[in-house]
Specification:
Oligomer: single chain
Number of strands: 0
Distance between the termini: 15 Å
Shape: elongated
Structural class: mainly alpha
Length: about 55
């Protein structure tokens, strides 16, 4: 089976992207003291956690 046939690979990419988005938004929100950016970071973390729990590859 090649990597392109692995359906979990796409979910891992989305999950890692959400983790990176969370880190970037959380850092930016902390530096400029913006609660809505930190809130978006929290939602990205929640989405990544749900993917991990539901579609655990």
């Amino acid at each position: 089976m090649s990597h392109s046939d692995d359906p979990a690979r796409g979910l891992r990419r989305i999950q890692y992207g959400l983790f990176l988005l969370m880190a970037a938004l959380g850092t930016a929100g902390f530096l400029i003291e913006s609660l809505w950016l930190m809130g978006l970071a929290a939602w990205a973390l929640i989405a990544a956690g749900l993917i991990e729990m539901i579609y655990r590859p």
